[in-house]
Amino acid sequence: MKRFHVLLRETRRSIGITQRDLARRAHVSRSSLLAYELQRRHPTRDTLCRVLDSLGIDAQRRNELLAAAGYAIEDAGVRFHANPLTLEEARESVEGRPWICFLLNELIEVRAMSPAARALWAIDDNVLEQPARRSVLAMLTQPWYADSIGDWDDAAAFHIALFKSRVAPAASEAPGAYVTAVLEEVERGRPKLVTRFFDLWDSTPAMGHEWLSSWYDTTWKHDSERLRFHVLNNIVNEEDALYTSDWLPSDEATYRHVASMAGGAPGRKRAPQRRSR
User: Fold this and answer.
1) What is the pLDDT of residues 141-195, one digit of tens each?
2) Is 110 found in the same domain as 21?
3) How far apart are CA 75 and CA 77, in angstroms?
4) Residue 22 domain-assigned?
5) Angle, helices 30-37/19-26, rounded to nearest 10 degrees
6) Cα Rg for the chain, rounded, in angstroms?
7) Which domain holds residue 48?
8) d(Cα 49, Cα 144) in Å, to the nearest integer?
């Protein structure tokens, strides 16, 4: 994906509108618009939407600009492939994205991560090589996850409901080998969290078909900063139940922090890899 400032400049020029006219229509100063195109400043989402409204571009290009700027898109359907992706194709797509993105399967196993996602979670690759440990359920009770995620109970309930909707109907009541292995990983976590997890496990029903395209807001603590995200879950292969989870920054501070982790802004930071258990 092209950098936001380049895409904005190219889009404006392709329409044939001057910076002065676009600034007037969008009710922003010309100096601000110039700064956006030169990557000297970054617009708020509201300001960017006014600019996009004034450009009058199609939905797909509009969402490309929103995503490039690090903001939640307005129509998720236009961003995802009409044809189902294989695991390898989906993995390649996710690993090439500049924002935080995860590829998961029906068992909520993390199968691929974008570079920014790896920097955010600082997770050891060894974890992703073991099916039970790469399940988000197993991560929920681990201190590194629980101390970072905002609204832990909401996050746990969401993933439990999603997990129950994808395993065999009786699996949550009489777990098979895989589910048992995941729950054993859960039990290795922080004791108080384990108790809360199983309380939610007993009380949370399976999610319906809405899991195919769902969204929620969350926060994540990273480098002592509380980052805010709009998370979009979208299916990329219904038959294989592969879906992407895009963590799109919902404010400018989060956007800049993520850009720094991904190497898209000065002051890039490399998070150390977390030790495997």
Assistant:
1) 999 999 999 989 999 998 898 888 776 444 455 556 678 888 999 999 999 999 9
2) no
3) 6
4) yes
5) 120
6) 20
7) 4-68
8) 36
Q: Which residues in 143-166 are b (16+ Cβ under 10 Å) and which e?
A: eebbebbeebeebbbbbbbbbbbe
Place of tokens 């969401």: 158
Domain-located, residue 243: yes
* The length of the chain, given as a count of residues: 277
Q: What is the pTM for the complete model shown?
A: 0.66
Give pLDDT tens digits for 28-78: 999 999 999 999 999 998 899 999 888 877 666 787 888 888 887 764 433
* SS3 of the chain: CCCHHHHHHHHHHHHCCCHHHHHHHHCCCHHHHHHHHCCCCCCCHHHHHHHHHHHCCCHHHHHHHHHHCCCCCCCHHHHCCCCCCCHHHHHHHHHCCCCEEEEECCCCEEEEECHHHHHHHCCCHHHHCCCCCCEHHHHHCCHHHHCCECCHHHHHHHHHHHHHHHCCCCCCCCCCHHHHHHHHHHHCCCHHHHHHHHHHHHHCCCCCHHHHEEEEEEEEEECCEEEEEEEEEEEEECCCCEEEEEEEECCHHHHHHHHHHCCCCCCCCCCCCCCCC
Residue 276 domain-assigned (yes or no): no
Is residue 164 located within the same domain as residue 207?
yes
